[in-house]
């Protein structure tokens, strides 16, 4: 039994999710959301008849704050935290991660994300590619899927895949878009990861932003649309980067383009807010700029 938990991030519905999978060894959480929404995580879990204190295992797709920021709270409760080997050091010592987030978010840090405290190393479990983590009769397979983040895992359970951010953002009946925050956007790696998802042939995707895509045909269409969106935005930004355009010019244009695209594909005004909360335009501009600059420097 899989539960989608709405974390009500910034009082916006359906922008960030966590998931609870029931097993014989307690509920397993996939993602925790940020620390700032921990109370909603607890409440949403309770509403499903589950208790956060019974969570013995947390599976993270990656360590961005909107996915993993509350993992340390679950660790205090005794849970093991399963993560990509390249992400583990930031859980053991989150200072660097929080410092760089602090440079970006400044005074809003606390209200947006809350805190991130270190997790004892014996509770951090590194998971290799294609490893299967068996918990209470349920097998969770780790698909290493870089592109959005170098340390990204998509978790497969039977014919479902929890795609974190590598499977894109899709809210309600809006279009699929590719979230591209810094620092490690890698378009080539992302293409390969989409192929990994296709090969696994899932009947359902669970997106952290936000919810379920069900049916093999819908999943196929979703992944096609994701890839198209990814290339569209990265190709769009490339000449701006080559010409050394300023963020002041690129960000508003990118946002305008994004909003046009969302509206043309059925997004309402309220949904634009949900999309921005889940996937801020200025972050994608920063991430894609960094990608092209790195590539040019190679
Ligand atoms: Zn992310």
TrEMBL record:
InterPro entries: Metallo-B-lactamas, NDM-1-like, RibonucZ/Hydroxyglut_hydro, ST1585_MBL-fold
Coiled coil: none
Domain of life: Bacteria
Any GO MF annotation of the entry: hydrolase activity
Location of the Metallo-beta-lactamase domain: 15-209
Protein keywords: Hydrolase
Keyword Repeat: no
Pfam families per the UniProt record, alphabetical: Lactamase_B (PF00753)
Protein's name in the database: MBL fold hydrolase
Species the sequence originates in: Mangrovivirga cuniculi
